[in-house]
Amino acid sequence: MNDGPVLSIADVSIAMGQGAAISQTRSDLLLMSNRLSDLMFGLGVAEKAFRLIRENLMWAIVYNLIAIPAAVAGWLEPWHAALGMSLSSLLVVLNALRLYLLPRPAFPLTVE
């Protein structure tokens, strides 16, 4: 109960799902389960997601740096540019779906 003020001034604070309500509202991150291994899994997913965001941004920037000047110069028909943009968006979505390929942690069954 007295962790709330400390959690609110900490640089990074994490509260567990079964903790006091004041601790949950004052923390930066709320871990809904009571397993610390879920925190490691969440950090791994966040790291992979950040890497995929950077990849998708780089792909979009490179595509737009090439396709927009080509379309303005008339080297591409408008339907080619539209098709290319649609395929680019599809590539970004498929790249982001790679997050689903991360292995899920296996937890032993607990007896309560």
From TrEMBL:
Q: Which UniProt keywords apply?
A: Membrane, Metal-binding, Transmembrane, Transmembrane helix
Highest lineage ranks of the organism?
Bacteria, Pseudomonadati, Pseudomonadota, Betaproteobacteria, Burkholderiales
GO MF annotation terms: metal ion binding
Q: Where are the transmembrane segments?
A: 57-76, 82-101
**The protein's name in its UniProt record:** Heavy metal translocating P-type ATPase
Parts forming coiled coils: none
Q: Which Gene3D superfamilies match?
A: HAD superfamily/HAD-like
Organism of this sequence: Undibacterium luofuense
InterPro entries for this protein: HAD-like_sf (IPR036412), HAD_sf (IPR023214)
Q: Which PANTHER family match?
A: P-TYPE CATION-TRANSPORTING ATPASE
The yes or no answer to whether the keyword Membrane is present is yes
